[in-house]
């Protein structure tokens, strides 16, 4: 089976699961092993590659589904470097600097910890340090529930002399950050495609003065602007997949998908009018996630600053070589 055929099968599987979209969706994903794609089977993973996992993440996001697939898959990928994976939900948090764990314990207040209330393990990653593993069931751990704008858990975790274990042999902070950036880019891209498809269908079917809204030049022009953003974001993600670990690829895809998220969400609501803000209509499930996910890992401004520093270090010749290099051709939108 070719890679494209396998990707199509994954998308079809996600479509079927999304159509059911019951309360046990996450359990179904776990049972199928989808969050552990990209981890070796002998470590407790499902095999496959990061590219396969990106397809899963993008497809779920395209349906406006919020599940901890990005965080759980990354945490398990880190832990898979150190031994066989255990059952239960693991999550991950990036820190600006490593916590003081010289005593084998950590005291800290951690904010915006994804899905902490539902997780059993937390992996802390910081520059220049091995990842640390925290048992969230330890009596010294207190979790305060906090939600982001999409209604997803971004909790505060208070550690008071909590025992931690160094995950020796785990990937470096930079590798974890890059993987999270790629996965969140795929999530933003998926939700952007979902918002575009929903909007395109709406303006094609909704009539005004006896004709579809799409016949109005301003509406058609705005829909075209959404499509342009998608083409750019598709190309950026394709480039990042091919140039993984290459200078600037991650920054480019995060900047491009963040910009796409902003414009696509704005135009989608403009073209839907009042319908787009009703609780019953599914648009908000996509746009609220676009607003929440666009700055995951780091803000668009931080990525732009990082890219600027890389460009300054590369010099004129390096920048020219990079921007004139052949780019991957993005997939077409039906």
What does this structure look like?
The protein has helices at residues 3-20, 25-31, 50-62, 69-80, 173-205, 217-242, 249-272, 283-293, 300-323, and strands at residues 90-94, 105-114, 121-125, 132-135, 141-144, 154-166, 207-208, 211-212. It has three domains: 1-65; 88-171, Butyryl-CoA Dehydrogenase, subunit A, domain 2; 173-323, Up-down Bundle (Butyryl-CoA Dehydrogenase, subunit A, domain 3), CATH 1.20.140.10. The protein contains nine helices and eight strands. The longest helix has 33 residues, at 173-205. Residues 328-332 have low confidence and may be disordered. The protein is an alpha+beta fold and 334 residues long. Strands 1, 2, 3, 4, 5 and 6 form a six-stranded mixed beta sheet that branches. The protein is globular and about 70 Å long.
